[in-house]
Design brief:
The chain has two domains: 3-241, ATPase, nucleotide binding domain (Nucleotidyltransferase, domain 5); 252-434 and 469-499, ATPase, nucleotide binding domain (Nucleotidyltransferase, domain 5, 2-Layer Sandwich), CATH 3.30.420. The protein has helices at residues 51-68, 110-120, 122-128, 137-147, 149-152, 161-170, 177-182, 195-201, 223-229, 243-250, 309-318, 324-332, 373-397, 416-426, 437-444, 447-450, 452-463, 474-498; strands spanning 3-9, 14-20, 26-32, 48-49, 76-83, 89-91, 101-102, 157-159, 186-187, 192-193, 237-242, 258-263, 267-273, 285-288, 299-305, 342-346, 360-364, 404-408, 430-433, 464-468. It is of the alpha+beta class. Helix content is 39%, strand content 19%.
């Protein structure tokens, strides 16, 4: 029996999956380490990690998953990598790390991106980057140039986190088009590296790695990586992508009109299109999808809701660690609309879809004689679902067609209230798939052998679990949602007054 192995390099852990090649079936998934990896925050709003830590946990986890499943290294055909997006890793001419990685949730470069947007102008960055320069990899590299010139002058290569892991496996330094697009380093109009943005930042163009295709051979495991990881020398690396495009691939979201919905700590909507323009550069992001090519430029539009599952987890802690099933059962006894109780779930930092405002999390219209725990639980689930619907409206106003929505079988979509509310408000079914990012990366490593069309058909038959249909009481959901939007509008207007 032969396998592909997939890695999902997150900021909390490294997830590893084994997939049987012929059937595409998941054989095993593990996470390493058991506790969350540390994030170094020297100053407020900073977030850094040592890339060697990612590699060390990857090696320990690889040996563990092979041992626990009695798989020999000679049974592994190929490697796939998914990774935390937007981070910055810098190496010197000897390919040694110069500093810890500035990771995705670090916001030190916000002002740099804002000034770049103002200087460059929306007409240029909108048509070329499909995004404002923002707090992405290019802006983080500019921060290093301005604030750590002694490090910048030694940089020979900059890269994304997944590019570093690929280098550790193969000894070869490269990136991908979709990786560059995550860092605001790809010009969609010219279909080449956005050297004009690097020029604006005063960054040497030669520091950009060469590009490889997502699904082609990207090097082979070298002797050092084999000794450290337990894999065999010569195994090909055949796939890499950022975590959100990869999650979309794992959910079989590959064609225009298809949308991936993820309901974890934060919520994500990822819609695929073949668009060549947009009116939204601030509330959503546009990236090259995993199957983007200059000839077939498929774009993934990403909308993030920071205040999603973290709100429900917070409530669980406040309820003395009541389990989620108990919370859901109590919530289901409460009617749609939570009898007037309204929740805004935005307590996890600035919300990009709200123009980077931070309204905070709150319950409104609380009646101490009427509302019980179940009301709090239902109101929280509805508030998160309403924020998903609000994000979907933003996407649709930006002329995105939505034909198919697929979601992972994660915490939020396991809740009938949450799933029914989202489906009823958007007015179409949601297909539920049982998969993970690491499994998607492992399967993608085999795409080059079998092709994307065969991959898509196989995944649909294996992973699809169920379908959530819009409910008959759609008007009740809509009434509750309209009241929620009034509350949100009032809160945002009050924020303006406070400012």
């Amino acid at each position: 029996m032969k396998y592909t192995i997939g890695y999902d390099i997150g900021s909390s852990s490294v997830k590893i999956a084994l997939v049987e090649t012929n059937s595409n079936r998941k054989m095993a998934v593990i996470s390493e380490p058991h506790e969350e990896m540390p994030i170094l925050a020297i100053k407020a709003n900073w977030a850094e990690q040592d890339p060697e830590m990612w590699w060390q946990h990857l090696c320990v986890g690889t040996q563990r998953i092979l041992s626990e499943n009695n798989v020999n290294a000679n049974q592994i055909l190929a490697i796939g990598i998914s990774y935390q997006m937007h981070g910055l890793v810098v190496l010197d001419k000897n390919k040694a790390l110069l500093r810890d990685s500035i990771i995705w949730c670090d916001s030190r470069a916000v002002a740099i991106g804002e000034k770049a947007a103002q200087d460059i102008g929306e007409e240029k960055f909108g048509t070329r980057l499909f995004n404002a320069p923002g707090n992405f990899t290019a802006s983080k590299l500019k921060w290093v140039k301005d604030n750590e010139p002694h490090i910048y002058e030694k940089i020979a290569y900059y890269m994304l986190p997944g590019d570093f892991i690929a280098y550790k496996f193969t000894g070869e330094i490269a990136t991908t088009i979709n990786g560059l697009s995550e860092g605001m380093l790809w010009d969609f109009k010219e279909k080449k590296v956005a050297n004009w943005l690097l020029d604006y930042y005063g960054i040497d163009n030669s520091l950009t790695p060469p590009c490889v295709n997502n699904f082609d051979d990207q090097g082979q495991v070298n002797a050092q990586a084999a000794a450290q990881s337990g894999l065999l020398e010569g195994i090909p690396l055949r796939y890499r992508a950022g975590d959100q495009p990869n999650n979309a691939l794992a959910l079989n979201i590959l064609k225009p009109g298809e949308v991936a919905a993820t309901g974890g700590t934060s919520g994500v909507l990822f819609a695929v299109s073949d668009r060549n323009s947009s009116k939204e550069f601030y509330r959503v992001n546009h990236f090259a999808h995993v199957n983007y090519t200059p000839e077939q430029p498929l774009i993934g539009t990403l909308l993030c809701v920071n205040g999603a599952g973290i709100q429900y987890s917070w409530l669980r802690k406040m309820a003395n660690h009541t389990d989620f099933n108990t919370m859901n059962s109590l919530a289901e006894k409460v009617p749609i609309g939570s009898e007037g109780l309204i929740n805004l779930p935005f307590g996890n930092g600035a919300e990009r879809m709200l123009n980077n405002k931070t309204p905070g999390a709150q319950f409104s219209n609380l009646n101490l004689n009427q509302h019980q725990q179940g009301h709090l639980f239902r109101s929280a689930l509805e508030g998160i679902a309403f924020s998903f619907a609000y994000g979907m409206e933003i996407m649709q106003k930006d002329a995105l067609n939505i034909n198919v929505i697929r979601a992972g079988n994660d915490n939020l979509f396991r809740s009938k209230i949450f799933a029914d509310t989202v489906a009823s408000l958007i007015g179409q079914p949601i297909e539920i798939y049982n998969t993970t990012g690491a499994v998607g990366a492992a399967r993608a490593a085999g795409v080059g052998y079998n092709g994307l069309e065969e991959y898509s058909q196989s995944i649909s038959s294996i992973d699809r679990m169920s379908e959530i249909l819009p409910q008959k009481e759609a008007s009740l959901y809509r009434l509750a949602y309209d009241k929620w939007k009034i509350e949100l509008k009032s809160k945002l207007e009050n924020l303006k007054v406070e400012l």
